[in-house]
Design a protein that fits this description.
Structural class: mainly alpha
Helix content: 55-70%
Distance between the termini: 49 Å
Strand content: under 5%
Largest sheet: 3 strands, antiparallel
Number of strands: 3
Strand order of the largest sheet: 1-2-3
């Protein structure tokens, strides 16, 4: 397929080159150049196929979700189906001929997933967290993500080991079972969250599922890597304690690195004024996505945990040193990167379905037991943990003499139903320790489980919302106002206001800020009323009837004790790539910012 310009345009030089090679060997390195050129052509062919598939997938998602509105087929499911269709054609035709050269269309490269695709997805999830709604449900999120994930990994792993020893399932060792339980406990409810966003479900439900998925990935991947170190060696109490300590140290150290680097990025934007050079500013901000990740990976820690907390910290501090247009542009770029990465991953996953053609890798009993155990383990930790959260909220509400914000039963049912498995689990399966030659079985089992949950649970999300009577089209405004009234000045927030904000936020004056908080809010609104809430904001209507407001963006200090509150009130370009809120994007030509309720999602 390559076209040798030297051969066709300079025949004399080409003939002399041949003579020199015959007489003296590869004198000028022509042979080496030819081999390099051949590799370039192979890679170009691969990328051409992949980009054509990616663009086709984006168009298919648009028609499935926006034009045809196929509620039974999630967009991620449509992407996987297209990948399976193309992968099936490639496998049937035997056209995947580049595998011997290190490039395979059918192969799922877990390294590419963890290095290229996963960091933008995790960073965007952390950066787009709505602080007020997230922390209002923090107890439930932490319980599900930490206790629930560890419990699920142990239940799945221990029982698969017992069933294997009993002869009713494929036999694996105990540590292999726990390692597999860790990766299969990684929830990936992309389809469900997309439906939740479109239908504007109850904020408590949305943030329980969304928050769990963000934290769960970090916990599950860290737990998987920790247990994977012990596969193939004898395990006792001492090794178990070492594994536990290793997990805690890895997670905490990664969290600290993420927080420190987030503070460092905010300090850079405070000291270096790039407000009049938005392209440079946004480029630097976006470029910082990968630095914490690679630093943590270099130190043998969890890059996913690091980049998650870097994103949360950057949103909290760094964005306050950026002009509003640059802030919205950065949010837009992060959303696009995450959207393209998610689409690529599901396409990659669908194409790779036919990579394992050996039927001996598929064990029906092992797959069925895995499906049953993940359902049982999820049910036996979701309901007890959320009930404990309700009991705590009820007790606190009695102490404060107010009505408790309890998690309804139908919300619990929907949280249980939303435990989809996806690309994170499948990518971990592809790097499963292969000391006992069980990786192919784990990969095939994970693939089947992920496909079943994507199509069954993802496809029936809307139906379940209807059956459970989950409110849709919810206005989160009253809910947020209620959170404001119930807020209190946590010690960390007061410490942060005194020591962190002056160091990392441009023009911040803690003393002046505290006086204004007391005068404008009575000293109790530490979840963040705007300092400018007494100012009149003119409201207008655009041609489509959407309400807009002219919002001033002070640069000298944040609008509330929580530095990201202003973004939550006025919108920050979130979900732009998926079409949920386009008016506040970087292409907006005016200073009008929507105050519609979708800015809270």
């Amino acid at each position: 397929m390559s076209f040798d310009m030297v051969k066709h345009l300079y025949p004399f030089i080409y003939s002399n080159r041949r003579l020199e090679e015959e007489e003296e060997g590869d004198l000028f390195g022509w042979e080496k150049h030819a081999n390099t050129r051949e590799e370039e052509v192979v890679v170009a062919e691969y990328l051409l196929v992949f980009l054509v598939l990616l663009v086709s997938t984006l168009l298919l998602q648009f028609y499935v979700g926006k034009i045809w509105k196929l509620t039974f087929l999630p967009e991620s499911g449509a992407t996987v189906l297209l990948g399976m269709f193309i992968g099936g054609i490639i496998r049937a035709s035997g056209a995947d001929t580049q595998e011997d050269k290190g490039v395979s269309v059918l192969g799922f490269n877990a390294t590419v997933f963890f290095i290229a695709f996963l960091p933008p997805i995790i960073f965007n999830a952390g950066y787009m967290l709505k602080r007020r709604l997230f922390f209002a449900n923090l107890g439930g999120i932490i319980s599900l993500a930490f206790i629930g994930t560890a419990y699920s990994a142990l239940v799945v792993g221990i029982f698969l080991y017992i069933f294997g020893q009993s002869g009713v399932s494929y036999p694996i060792s105990l540590i292999e079972g726990i390692c597999f339980g860790s990766l299969i406990s990684a929830t990936d409810p992309v389809s469900t969250l997309a439906v939740f966003t479109e239908l504007r479900v109850d904020p408590t439900l949305f943030y329980l599922v969304f928050g769990e998925s963000v934290m769960n990935d970090a916990v599950a991947i860290t737990l998987f890597r920790t247990t994977g170190k012990f596969v193939g060696i004898p395990i006792g109490i001492e090794e178990g304690l070492i594994a536990f300590v290793d997990f805690v140290i890895s997670f905490v150290a990664s969290l600290i690195i993420g927080y420190v680097l987030g503070l460092f990025s905010a300090w850079i934007f405070k000291k270096v004024d790039m407000s009049h050079h938005r392209i440079v500013l946004v480029s630097v901000f976006v470029g910082m996505v990968y630095i914490p990740f690679f630093l943590a990976e270099t130190l043998q820690l969890s890059g996913i945990v690091t980049i998650l907390f870097t994103a949360i910290t950057a949103r909290r501090y760094s964005s306050n040193n950026m002009p509003p247009q640059a802030k919205r542009a950065a949010a837009f770029v992060f959303e696009i990167m995450a959207y393209m990465s998610e689409t690529s991953v599901f396409l990659y996953m669908g194409v790779a379905v036919f990579a394992k053609s050996n039927a001996s890798f598929y064990h029906g009993s092992f797959i069925l037991w895995t499906l049953l155990l993940i359902v049982v383990s999820r049910a036996t930790h979701v309901y007890p943990l959320l009930t404990m959260v309700n009991n705590y909220r009820e007790r606190r509400a009695r102490q404060k003499n107010r009505r408790p914000n309890l998690i309804p039963k139908n919300t619990m049912h929907m949280v249980f139903f939303s435990g989809l498995r996806g690309a994170v689990a499948y990518a971990c399966a592809n790097i499963f320790p292969d000391e006992k030659d069980n990786r192919d079985v784990i990969v095939c089992t994970t693939m089947v489980v992920a496909l079943i949950t994507i199509f069954v649970k993802g496809g029936f999300t809307i139906k379940m919302l209807e059956l459970l009577g989950i409110p849709r089209g919810v206005d989160p405004g009253p809910y947020v106002e209620k959170l404001k009234k119930q807020a209190k000045p946590y010690k960390f927030l007061l410490w942060e206001e005194k020591w962190i904000y002056p160091w990392v936020i441009k023009g911040y004056d803690a003393n002046r800020r505290h006086e204004m908080d007391l005068s404008s809010t009575g000293g109790s609104e530490h979840l963040g009323n705007s300092l400018h809430s007494h100012e009149h904001i003119p409201v207008s209507h655009n041609e489509e009837g959407a309400t807009t407001a002219a919002v001033s963006h002070p640069t000298s200090e944040p609008a509330s004790l929580y530095a990201d509150d202003e973004d939550e009130e006025n919108g920050d370009g979130i979900q732009l790539a998926k079409g949920y809120s386009s008016s506040s994007g970087p292409l907006a030509s005016t200073s009008l910012v929507h105050v519609e309720r979708d800015s809270l999602w």
